[in-house]
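Changelog note: in this version the structure field was regenerated for every chain. One regenerated record is shown below for reference.
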Amino acid sequence: MKILWCVVLSVLLCGGVGRGQPTALTLEDAIRLALQHNPELRAAEARVEAAAGRARQARQWANPELELSAEDWPVSNGRGFSDAKQTIGLAQTLPFPGKKALEGEAGRAGVKLSEHERALRRTALVREVKTGFVRVLAAERLVAVATQLVNVAAASATAARKRVEAGATAFHEQLRAEVQHEQARSELTGYERELAGARQSFATVLGRPELQAVTLQGALAEAPDAQLLTEAGAARLAHHPSVSAAQAQLERANFEERRARLEPYPDVKVGVSGGRIGETDQSIVQVGVSLPLPLLDRGRGKQQEARALVSAAEAELRAAQQQVQREWAAAGQRYHAAAAQVANYRERILPKAAEALRLIQAGFDHGKFTFLDLVDTQRTTAEAQLAYQHKLLELNTTQAELEALLQPQLSINQ
């Protein structure tokens, strides 16, 4: 009985906790989970399989046709089927040379297009995971700073009330301190709500909504990555999945345009059959050739459509190349600006705010400054810390955008 209770207790304490859910996530773990569970990526992989199936089918010839016939069947004088000419044979459509080869090439280009579209979705998903990860980290730090501000404001309000009770200061200082305390509490509530929203969005991106409360192991980058904005990095934009997908689309359109030019040349249907003539029981062999005449439909509409699709694909390729260049330039500018602002806060603003608070605190202790001077300086210091966290978030989210544009090789198994 004692052993049984030990087993039950072990199950309650260990076996039912989390059902295999992770207790903490690194960024690499989060990316791996997203790649495994994101439904949009699964859909993209299914479309690759569908394109492969279409490409395989495009290379296949039409099935041969089994032909059975009975001709010259006498219906008078009591004569029947045995006196008819009976034949059995096969007919096969022979595509014009080059048609099936071009259809196969177009199918393979379609597979490449689907693969690049899957890579584009994977890239976007990794960017979303990175962005969501740093947003949660930044929201946690904002909550921590806002909590410190609430504690400082609460202490200031308490000190102000005691000073008023002792007759050392005017009542309006107490009211001002209490107002700042209420403002700090309201701001903390807002940051807590943002943290909850960031966690929910992050869990949704992972495809695991139950992981909203999981602990994240990581830290926000506080300095720019010098490798991101190098010339070698910019050269890799040509291999971005959106550009590769546009190139594959153009390749497929070219094959389809070449295939459309062969449309006026008809496929030949060849048949051979054998049988007997009923009256004489003589064996016969028949050979037939069927050739469509391109008199009414010469495929000009298909050729016009194919040429237009080539032009559209060329324009879309140029648009994709220009788009990644614009995104690279815009993200690079934001990255430089965020890096400069982060450095300015870290090296100048925050140290000066801390020093100002130290001087005001020391002066207040010696009666040189009023209580309101101290409260205002505390508030200014806290606001500088909150602004610094926002600048860090901008730096990290922009870094995720640049990494997505450069398509770094991910050492993560799907």
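Spot check on this record: DSSP finds nine helices and six strands in the chain. The first strand starts at residue 24 and ends at 25.
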